[in-house]
Structure formats: C-alpha cells, structure tokens
Design a protein that fits this description.
Layout lengths: L12 H7 L4 H4 L3 E5 L4 E6 L13 H19 L5 E11 L7 E11 L3 E9 L5 E12 L4
C-alpha cells in the first residue's frame, strides 16, 4: 500500500548526511541509509568509537542514533518556517551488540500542530531488536 509522503520540504540521504558534517553524528560514524514516504533509516558502527568498556554498543550511542532519527523526522515534517526541538526521549535497551552495525528506523506515531512523537526501532545485523525508543518533539512557530 502506497503512502503519501509526510515531508514538508526536500529530504534525502545526501541532505541528511550534509547537515551532520562535523557533528557528533559524523564523529560516531552514523550513516544515513534511506528515506521513505514516512520513515528515515540510519546505522551506527559498533567499534572503538561507540563501545563501552564491556565491549557492547554504548547505550548512549543508541540514544544518539534514536534522537538523530526522530529529530530529523520532526524537522522535515513540520510546517515550513517552524522548528522542532526535543522535549523527551526514552530508550529501552533490549539486547547488546558487540560488532557490526546497529540500524535504526523512525516513523511518526503522532504529527500534531505543536508536538510530534516518533518511534525509533534499532536492530542488529541479524535483525534482532537492540533498543526501542520514543521521542517527543515540540514544534515551535516562527519567531516574529
């Protein structure tokens, strides 16, 4: 079943990668993979930049990936001239990852006039869930 795109301005993997140059996203090796009509997908490597001392992907890195995806979703689906800023994020860590990549996909749960809620599901290379996260975003009207 085809869906209507939710994006209110141009969005692509290249645009998302470009706005994150020389940021934490860039430093952690996060790569944008796909943009669909109602989702964004990116991945983070499990390596020396992103592991905690027990050899697992650091939980905070999972949250960085989740917040990046949800924030991008909100920013590119809010009305023109509006800004999206984070209000709350939660994450449930379900399984550790010690190697490879962790891939996250975000989709909207709610796109409202003043708030948005985005679900982010992270999986390992075998497709097993590693983390589920939800972010609430405030949508701010243009300053005037």
């Amino acid at each position: 079943m085809a869906t209507t795109p939710i994006w209110t301005r141009p969005i692509s993997v290249d645009l998302l990668a470009g706005i994150h140059h020389d940021t934490a996203v860039d430093r952690l090796g996060i790569e944008f993979l796909a943009v669909g009509d109602d989702f964004i997908r990116a991945r983070v490597p499990v390596d020396g930049r992103t592991r905690q001392p027990y050899g697992l992907l650091h939980g905070g890195v999972s949250v960085v990936l989740a917040e990046t995806l949800g924030s991008c979703g909100a920013a590119y689906s809010c009305p023109p001239g509006h800004r999206a800023v984070g209000l709350d994020i939660n994450a449930n860590h379900l399984r550790g990852a010690t190697e490879g990549w962790v891939t996250g996909t975000t989709r909207p749960v709610h796109i409202g006039r003043t708030t948005q809620v985005w679900q982010i599901d992270l999986v390992d290379d075998a497709g097993r869930p590693t983390c589920v996260s939800r972010i609430t975003m405030a949508i701010l009207a243009p300053r005037g």
